[in-house]
Specification:
Layout: H1 2-16, H2 28-33, E1 35-39, H3 47-58, H4 78-84, H5 86-106, E2 112-117, H6 119-130, E3 137-143, H7 154-158, E4 160-168, H8 173-183, H9 194-197, E5 206-210, H10 230-241
Parallel strand pairs: 1-2, 2-3, 3-4, 4-5
């Protein structure tokens, strides 16, 4: 009875935090299989995150897949505020960590992944850091992440059994180079993002995958939103979700 109540509560929280689009993707059957939390960028839930989930569905990922909007839904100025609100971003990450721990209480030993696009990539790292010391998820997957390339990943990695994988593109200069130099990354540091150059330091457990021309056949031509295209998700991201033996495809 307690397990069912927690599962229903998690479903309600996920649905409420994501515009009500999650109902069919956060079912008891899917929750039994595992949890993939999809975090959008500063713009909030929309086409990019729908594409991420669509790609996972086409790859037969049968886990629960809530899209969780972490920023403030303020018209016009909202995205920029979300990008620059470092304290608010960490508070949002704590709520995501609580969602994970609640899920793990009701579904122990099930795999949990967090996928973050753009600003959501930084919040995904914060969420991993916010987990209690005795809690771990399988891994974090970063898509064109707006988090500074100098950010230290040790704490987040300590909460990930398999690790962190960072998909980045040197073509993403406008948003993750110029934009983050002017306004800062979601961690408050101004300068190029790890989604543009990769992280400066390469600790064990970090897997970095740079954009390459062959990815164009999956719909990823190197630009910021292309890392969410369903074809790219199916070919390059789903394998990391479908196995706990990272790196995927070795």
């Amino acid at each position: 009875m307690k397990r069912t109540a927690i599962a229903i509560g998690l479903s309600a929280v996920c649905a409420a935090g994501c515009g009500g689009t999650n109902k069919e993707y956060v079912t008891p059957h899917r929750l039994e299989r595992g949890l993939v939390i999809i975090l959008p960028g500063i713009e909030g839930e929309g086409g990019y995150t729908y594409d991420v989930r669509r790609g996972l569905l086409r790859s037969a990922v049968d886990m629960a897949m809530p899209i969780h909007s972490w920023g403030r839904p303020i018209p016009l100025a909202g995205p920029l505020l979300n990008q620059m609100d470092v304290i608010g971003n960490r508070i949002a990450a704590k709520r995501i960590a609580e969602m994970v721990t609640n899920y793990q209480d009701s579904h122990p030993d099930r795999p949990v992944y967090i996928i973050g696009h753009s600003g959501g990539g930084g919040v995904a790292i914060f969420a991993a850091e916010a987990l209690p010391e005795d809690r771990k998820i399988e891994g974090v997957i970063l898509l064109s992440a707006s988090i500074s390339k100098t950010y230290k990943l040790a704490k987040a990695l300590s909460r990930c059994r398999s690790g962190i994988v960072n998909f980045y593109s040197s073509h993403d200069v406008g948003l993750l180079g110029v934009g983050t130099t002017l306004f800062g990354n979601v961690d408050g540091i101004r300068g190029p993002s790890a989604g543009l150059t990769g992280f400066d330091k390469k600790p064990a457990g970090l897997y970095e995958i740079a954009w390459r021309e062959e990815m164009a056949s999956s719909g990823h031509f190197g630009s910021h939103g292309d890392s969410t295209k369903p074809g790219f998700i199916r070919a390059y991201i789903a394998p990391w979700v479908l196995t706990t033996d990272w790196p995927a495809g070795r």
